[in-house]
Amino acid sequence: MGAKVDRPPGRGKSGFEIMGKTVLSAIMAAAILAPAWVTTALAPSALAQEDAAPTPQSISTELYQTAMRHANAGDYETARRLLEANLQIKPGQVAYLRLLTLLAVLNDRPDDAFAALDRVADQGLTLGLERFEEALRAADAARFDALIARFAENAAPVGRAERLAVVDAPDALIEGVAMDIEMDRLFLSSVAEREILMIEPFSPDEVTVFADADDGLWSVFGIGVDDRTRMLWASSGVLPQTPMAEGEEVGTGLFAFDLVSGDLHRKYEIEGAERMTDFVVRDGAVYVSDNGAPRVYVLDDLSSNLRVLVEDDRFTSLQGLALSRGALYVADYTIGIWRIDLGDQSVSLVEAGEHSLVGIDGLLNTRDGRLVAVRNGVTPHQVMAIDLDREGRAVANVDVLLRAHRDMGDNTEPTLIDLADGRAWLVANAAWPLFPGDGSAPEAPRPSTVILEMNMP
After folding, report:
1. Are 47 and 56 in contact (CB under 8 A)?
2. Which burial class, exposed, middle or buried, applies to 206 when counting CB atoms under 10 A from its CB (0-12, 13-18, 19+)?
3. Distance, CA of 57 to CA of 250 (rounded, Å)
4. Alpha carbon distances (Å) from 238 to 38, 214, 277, 361, 401
5. Do the strands 231-237 and 253-258 form a parallel or antiparallel pair, or are they unpaired?
6. Backbone CA torsion sign across 174, 225, 259, 290
7. Which of 40, 350, 412, 422 could staple 429 via S-S, CB 3.0–4.6 A?
8. Cis ω on the peptide bond leading into residue 380 (within 30° of 0)?
């Protein structure tokens, strides 16, 4: 999980009201694709201060703002070119493609609008077309109908998954899931109640608290079982949705709990960390992403301390991690997937080619090195498997494993996933869009959280 830059406030779906060109200056916040707890938390570090060196995020923001100024001044062509330049920084960013469509419609350039929407469809994604329908259908009804058909195909159900658990905890805001294969216990992480929850196999309808704020936990994000050390790992930090006592210290850390006794083994912290959110464990080592700072940490073993593996200003909104072919792969919500060479720590962006790697939250790897990603920052939400080329530097193939499941409903989103023993467990419908980004109490009813289980192909 993680705070994501470039997503509309409230972690909901982005949308633009076509009311004339003056609307463009008012939609800046909505045009950038990222969850609210991400946007709020990351804005100070992502948007570099005036005296700081430019970063991809600060350059992207400046390009966007300049494009909006030209759009409001009626200079369509300059605005279009600036948005295209932004797409070089953030390839496939659907928010910018939608904005290109809007600009084209407002300026009576239907061919440009169709071209932008075709690029969305080419990535296997969809957009709501209601606001554009009248203008585009009048321009070319056959082309519009063909686009509708492509979007419908991209949104069609794919894959099978069964309900493993339905958790009636509307105030918990469950984000992560971990399966203890040895004991067949299911663990869940709670953001809004600062807990790790547990479901025993002999009592599937009963949820108990495994750990909570009394153990030092803040909001709990990523969670995972290490069968080698028999530890339950959890990453924890603070968001607006984190309930904090007056005067309580804000912090972030990686927690290790003994799976047998339930006791806290140790809390790992490191100076300069902003918000540890996601991690991957292999053979006792833990690799952790920082969603509030452009850093990835590593813990070599239980007795060592966290250290910075890589710090890179190109990182924007780090999420899930996976290990494959001697490299660490880290999802960046608005850019794609970074490859970190575990030998020389060099960092490069995985070449997506015709595929879209934008909007990935959860990321893990199968035993054979295939990447499994949960994508919730674009439509449709889905779980997909990513095959890399021989060098592990480019996408060779993408297979959609699960899409349009009945439990992946509106106003919710799939978040994190766990893999083991040829199976996968998924938080299907985290209620992020229903929890206000300012941390106030949610007013809308929240559904029970569904944990899905599916067989991996």
Report:
1. no
2. exposed
3. 26
4. 11, 15, 10, 18, 32
5. antiparallel
6. negative
7. 412
8. yes
Q: How does pLDDT run across 13-32, given as a tens digit for each residue?
A: 222 333 333 334 333 333 33
Cα end-to-end distance, the chain, whole Å: 24
3-state secondary structure at position 380:
coil
Which pLDDT score, from 0 to 100, does residue 98 have?
A: 95
User: Helix, strand, coil shares of the chain as percentages rounded to 5?
Assistant: 25, 30, 45
Amino acid at 206: E
Rounded Cα–Cα distance for residues 91 and 67 (Å): 17
196 and 234 Cβ atoms separated by less than 8 Å: yes
The alpha helices in 47-123, defined as continuous H runs, are: 56-72, 76-89, 94-106, 110-122
- Residues written for the chain: 457
The angle formed by the CA atoms of residues 335, 339 and 340, to the nearest 5 degrees, is: 125
Using alpha carbons, select from 329, 394, 389, 327 the residue that is nearest to residue 364: 329
At 255-296, the pLDDT tens digits run 999 999 999 999 999 999 999 999 999 988 999 999 999 999
**Distance between CA atoms of residues 219 and 241, nearest Å:** 8
Residue 201: the pLDDT is 92
What is the C-alpha separation between 361 and 374, in angstroms, rounded?
A: 6
> What is the spatial distance between Cα 414 and Cα 399, in angstroms, rounded to a whole number?
17
CA distance 386 to 363: 10
User: Which ranges of the chain have pLDDT less than 50?
Assistant: 5-49
Q: Give dist(CA 319, CA 325) in Å, integer.
A: 20
pLDDT tens for 59-76 read 999 999 999 999 999 999
Q: Which residue, 418, 299, 419, 298, is CA-closest to 368?
A: 419
pTM of the model: 0.89
Do the beta carbons of residue 126 and residue 356 sit within 8 Å?
no
pLDDT number for residue 208: 97
Quote the strand ranges of 207-350, DSSP E. 208-211, 219-226, 231-237, 253-258, 264-268, 276-282, 285-290, 295-299, 307-311, 318-324, 327-332, 336-341, 347-349
Query: Closest Cα partner for 340 from 325, 358, 353, 355?
Result: 325
Q: What is the DSSP letter of 158?
A: B
354 token code pair? 């015709």
- Alpha carbon distance 216, 252 (integer Å): 10
Percent of the chain's residues with pLDDT above 70:
89
Q: Which residues pair with 167 in a beta bridge?
A: 449
